[in-house]
Amino acid sequence: MSEPTSRPLWQWSATDIARATHAGEITASEVTEAILARMDAVNPALNAVVESLAEEARAEAAALDASDAPKGPLHGVPVTIKVNVDQKGHATTNGVAALKDLIAPDDAPVVRNLKAAGALIIGRTNTPEFSFRADTDTPLHGRTYNPWGRHLSAGGSSGGAGSAVMAGIGPLAHGNDIGGSLRFPASANGAVTVKPGLGRVPAWNPSQTAERGLLAQSMSVQGLLARSAKDLHLSMPALIAPDARDPFHVPLPWRGAPPVPPIKVAVTRDDFGFGLHPEVATAIDKAASALSDAGYDVTEVEPPLAFETGEEGYRTLLGEVKALMGPDIAAYGSKTVNAIFDAYFELFPPYEGPDLLRAMAKRSHYARAWSLFLQDYPLVLTPFLLKPFFHAGRDAEGLDGARDALGQAHWSFIMNFTGLPAGNLPTHIADLPEGPQPIGVQIAGQRWREDLIVDAMRAIEERIPPVCTTLWERMG
Description:
17 helices; globular; Amidase
């Protein structure tokens, strides 16, 4: 067996698990028992998984082991599902107490695709109320903690997924992202992710009673958190399989046309006047150096309309949220989440009425400017957050807290508003007064070229040691 697989099974990558199950070296049941034992050991202190599916996973693993041939590329690979996505027979709570009995009548496309690929769903992970915070805490499911320690938020809204995957509760974790909900937890916990672009992954919840707003449809995407980019190359092709229930899904293959080397990478350190923390600057330096060493053509150059795209994008999204979700947030949300939304609305005044329609229309203006830029620079290396991750509950500490947690995240919002793919990965562990934490970068790319982003992240991680080993040593 390879070097990585000399470690306990719960530490194996999805790639190593899939290779071994396909070769008959291990069984799906062996993998499942190892991951469930890890979940039992660490989840009580983390509250990442809020619904264990241990018995269902055991039964499905036994069925896989009894099959004549591997079911798919993820045969026997454990995965978790976020509680805001439908899984037949389970509650799609979205972190809201009023939805605790909303039982899904069928699987969402992402769940169906993972199962079809042979993945084993071992549990459902936590999300904040309405999946609309950069931190994960809810009156229904409680707080999710970061495995690096309680000096750090686990991020949001896929905080349960980020905490679980880095703690060893499965090598893959489903999450989604409308303003940063895959990338915030990746940054907080040290995970690796790629936020797919518009139309890449089919999405729909069979339990929903009304269609989502147009911006929610075009900005929210389904994805995965992992511990390595190689696991994204393994798993994302299964995730993007077509599903007719999403009529706007784009059925393109995972791999696009091979680019002509060297691939040009634009590097930006723009902090929009907020200030760039030295540790984040170091992360940019490390990633740029690794890409250059790997043969990429790395150049310092500023993308167009960056601050404006992020600012306008979030004001537009919040305009739709206020109009369509506002009554439900007021009626069913906690005092805490209502206060947080009040702060959001002050930081990013929502567009309303005709102004909202004009802002939605102008989305094409920003997407076009970025599309033209990406013709010359297919990849863009950016900060994600401008400083190290914040402590738990920071977004609930008034206007200053919301500004710290979300008000400087323009590099995140840009990618959702324009529908572009963007990946996050850690470059190093910072030894800060509050405690150690991973620091990383974002790599954005051309529409429907998530594969190029993951290639670039793979090149970086081949030159920079993974942070999960250090985390597991710290956890004991």
